[in-house]
Amino acid sequence: MNDWSRANFLDLNTFRGLGEDPVYHPPVLTDRPREWPLDQWADAPRDLGYPDFARYQWRGLRMLKDPDTQAAYHDLLWELRPRTVVELGVYSGGSLVWFRDLARLMGLDCQVIGIDKDLSRCQIPDTERTGITLREADCSQLETFEPLRGAAHPLIFIDDAHSNTFAIMKWAVGHLLEEGDYFIVEDMIPYWHRYSPALLTQYLASFRDVLAMDMVYANASSQLDRGVFRRSTTKE
Ligand SMILES: C[S@@+](CC[C@H](N)C(=O)[O-])C[C@H]1O[C@@H](n2cnc3c(N)ncnc32)[C@H](O)[C@@H]1O
């Protein structure tokens, strides 16, 4: 008999806590001892750098938010007490479960909505979906966002998909955000500032009458660096 006919195959998209995923295993250092002697502290190599893919998880689900960013969102949730969190970019879904759990712990009545063009990598089990709405859609199509118009406020809108960001920001300002609501651009502002500084500053300046950068959270972590915007006036 062949191997394939004897094997019991797991569904890789639905199995949670997959043992192969490096996030669940501490790294194995092969070229240096993990326990470095303190009498040679000054000679320790510093070339490992930081992983290019964050190693964070929430209750067994990968979550691409580092601890500083988690702390900033904790404070923002507590301060704003949002009724809705919309996150563009679901990936494993860990951040959606984390937002839902944190809001629950705080006693908030908050609906979490995740939008992604590819939900096949989402590993949120069916038993963990209370308070979470998943929508498969492409951020390049603005009609994707129409159903959000009925969402409760205060509202936090997070762009962690990095596609069509400024067109979405324009749509959100025009059709969704009320005074005090947030539009947050994760990760990308430092890159755009480095590679397209003129366009970035021009785009941001065009929102000067309707959005302001919240300086409490815009300096709170590298992922949120200069990307936390608050709706400053009510809709015309
Ligand atoms: C950085 S991951 C999201 C991580 C997640 N928010 C977290 O914190 O754990 C980015 C996700 O954006 C999705 N994405 C990329 N382009 C998109 C688009 N045009 N429309 C919808 N989703 C998109 C990808 O499929 C991917 O799952």
Give the amount of beta strand, in percent: 15-25%
Which second-level CATH architecture applies? 3-Layer(aba) Sandwich
Strand order of the largest sheet: 5-4-3-6-7-9-8
CATH superfamily: Vaccinia Virus protein VP39
Q: Work out the number of β strands.
A: 9
Provide a count of the helices: 6
C-alpha end-to-end distance = 71 Å
Residue runs with pLDDT of under 50 for 5 or more positions: none
Protein name: Hydroxylase
GO molecular function: methyltransferase activity
Organism: Streptantibioticus cattleyicolor (strain ATCC 35852 / DSM 46488 / JCM 4925 / NBRC 14057 / NRRL 8057) (Streptomyces cattleya)
Pfam families: RMNT_CmcI
Write up what this structure looks like.
The structure is a single chain. With 236 residues, the chain is of the alpha/beta class. The protein has one domain (57-231): 3-Layer(aba) Sandwich (Rossmann fold), CATH 3.40.50.150. It has helices at 3-6, 67-80, 94-105, 165-175, 189-195, 197-205, and strands at residues 57-58, 61-62, 84-88, 111-116, 132-136, 155-159, 182-185, 211-213, 228-231. α5 packs across α6 (197-205). The N and C termini lie far apart (71 Å). The chain binds S-adenosylmethionine (SAM). S-adenosylmethionine binds next to α3. S-adenosylmethionine (SAM) is lined by residues 63-65, 87, 89-91, 94-95, 116-118, 138-140, 160-161, 163.
